[in-house]
Please model this.
Amino acid sequence: MKTRWLIRCVLVLSAAGLASADLVANVPDGVTGLWTFFDLPVYQTAAIGQDLVGNAMGTGLLGPDTQIGTLHDPDLYTTNKVIQTRNYNSYLQVNHNIGANGGGSLTNQYTVALDYRQTQANPQNSLFNTYIDSPTATEPAELRFLRVGDEGFVSTIGSEATGYSTQTLVANDWHRIVWSVQNGVDGYFRVYVDGILFLDAPGQAIDGDYALNNFFHMFTGAGWSDNWGICGNLMTWNRALSGEEIAPMGGWSIGDTVEDSPTPLLFVPEPTSLAILALGGLLALRRKQ
Model:
């Protein structure tokens, strides 16, 4: 069985050498982490990067199919594994593997992408928290949904520090949410929902509230502002992606249509990413046998 599995590994990695001319990679380079929850119930396992740290996350649910591959092998694997986030005593700690950049002693340029659906209709819901401890940071900074009106799921996205979007989204639909951060005088804090720019805020201070230490937190915020929801895929980059790079990653909403599955994620076939992605798919396959 072990020999057969190793042969299958070699075949998958060899097949990656056959290019497909009609495909375009839509995952920009610089990825430092990818978490697809393919190893459930051990939800912390990373496909790329370091394993997550967290507690008390529900792991018994299946979500929409997400296709993940490369230009050379677009059907590398499909995942429908998701985790459930809760409104108390639960969080994910993401070790992003970026390091100091952007002219400071902390991480000042980065991008995070999240496939997410909120399931509890509360006034606000924290998605991201810097959990910062810096002499120049005043408090942990967040990204959150803010409900419009007294009930339902129609929400804006942003924070008190960055302001909130004028556009709204339906938070209990699936969305691919990407925030691109470049701290400093000429920087920005930009949030994209399904490839569309929702919030374009000025950059924050170098090593300030929106800088990162070695990790950040997901699904926890000040004043117990996190809520029930479902998380699909999570990714990090070591730089602030541009709108032109983020748009092709798309998401679920295309115009007025909400798709059943998100835009596939196709990586540039970098050797490290390719090998780990292939291994992740094969491990999932092996567990089913």
Observations:
- The chain has one domain: 2-288.
- The longest helix spans residues 271-288.
- Residues 2-288 form a domain with the Jelly Rolls fold (CATH 2.60.120.200).
- Residues 32 and 52 are 13 Å apart (CA to CA).
